[in-house]
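Retro notes, item 3 of 5
We never archived the inputs for the magnesium ion complex last cycle. Fixing that now. Sequence and ligand:
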Amino acid sequence: MPVPLLTFKVIDKVYQNGTVALQGVNLIVQPGEFISLVGPSGCGKSTVLRLVAGLGTPTGGLMNWHGPNNQRNLAFVFQDPALMPWANVVENVYLPLKLKGQPLRSVRERIQAAINTVDLCGCEKSYPRQLSGGMKMRVSIARALVTTPQILLMDEPFGALDEMTRSRLNSDLLHLWEKKHWTVLFVTHNIYEAVYLSTRVIVMAAHPGRVVANIPIEAAYPRTDSFRTSSQFNYYCREIMAALSEVEGVGVS
Amino acid sequence: MGKQVSQVFDKRNSKTAWNWLAPALVGLVGVISWDIFVRLTNTPPYLLPGPGLVIKTLVEEWGDLFPSLLVTVQITLVAFLTAVVSGLLIAILFAQSKWVERSFFPYAVILQTTPIVAIAPLIIIWLQNNTFMALVVCAWIVAFFPIVSNTTLGLNSADHNLQNLFEIYGASRWQTLIHLRLPSALPYFLGGLRISGGLALIGAVVAEFVAGTGGTRSGIAYQILISSFNLEIPRMFAALAMTTVLGVAIFVGLTVLSDRLLQHWHESAIKREN
Ligand SMILES: Nc1ncnc2c1ncn2[C@@H]1O[C@H](COP(=O)(O)OP(=O)(O)OP(=O)(O)O)[C@@H](O)[C@H]1O
Ligand SMILES: [Mg+2]
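Structure as it came back at the time:
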């Protein structure tokens, strides 16, 4: 058993207004994993990511980082773009590097590379209000990619994008992940996306937020488009859907 | 193609022209009705002078009135700039901790709600050697609160997720202030500026009224006061008109500044195209 990067031991999170967002969540994240979290709205997916990022503390249980200060080395793509409206695309993408004290001159190429990855060439000087919702989201993704995170947290990053851009960014993300040995925690509503990307899919349920299934996707990388149409792919999708509908069934009865 | 472009251009030009023309037209109609009213009712000039007489007096008395206006401009400007700097610094101080804000904010409110007319005599007595300073202090008291309260609000309303982002990337307090909280506060600060500019003038005028000082360094309010004592009503109107124009100029100047600074990003300065 390799040394995990991060462990959640029976984590509870109760917000100040009494909402039980998470109850008894166990989670072990191995370095280099690509984990997707799926589940109905309000089941605490964003809460898990926020806890990992150190935004707020669990109200119960133990959260442990293993190895030296991993926590500083993470990047977060929020559910909404969270761009600075007074700054143009380049300045927004530059932000994490600026906060680390790196002069713009020395990182121009990295910024440009990140902007190219999300296909926003030509928009470098645009302000957020001049961009569409999907473009803003892509700026937000570029801002996360420009750092060299050990762990990348993404909260429905592709939800606002069209199917074409989404699948292109999916494969780009996989390439980067394979190349850079990131650990990714990825929230999505899209089961197909989760299966295509992940080494493991975690299914969550609401009221209270908890983990109900843990499904390793045992398919080799690099994953091609033919994987999307394989019977193996369908099998995993069905399994996740079954896990999701099982919880809903319990909720109804 | 070229024709299309020039058409678009003309349209935009005529639009901005209307922005000026429409209020000017309203003003003209107002002045004309005022003139007609005075002529028809035969109102004597010591009750209500007609616009022609006011303009004539303005031209005749310009040598007397304009230096006084400049004194008021000086008082207003010094008070306003002091209010901007002190208001900004105090707001930044307030934004450092909820406790600082809670402890000191009530006193800023007290300073604001105390009627300036009531405390002006006191300030003038305290600073009797320097009337100019006393007037500046009075105008400052009136002008600085909107800047403090608006900027404090702005500093505290930075986007929640952006604050989280800054925290994740390990931003220092100072970096968060410079790169997140101050830019977020800019629209609020500029809103405070616009209110405060007009208030500085009002504060200066009120304080001059209370001080009632003459001599070479007398402001425009003193001229209004003296004219009304001497029943030189047209002269009073002329001085009043100058004060009003000054107030409008301050407001327009600050609005232009605000639009310039916010043109790329803030809703208040953007033409909606949808
Ligand atoms: N700051 C907060 N204060 C109080 N309750 C909160 C807060 N943030 C989230 N919650 C509650 O916690 C629960 C989980 O929220 P969370 O945002 O983690 O859900 P989610 O799974 O990300 O949902 P979605 O898919 O809609 O984004 C919800 O019931 C929500 O109402
Ligand atoms: Mg969420």
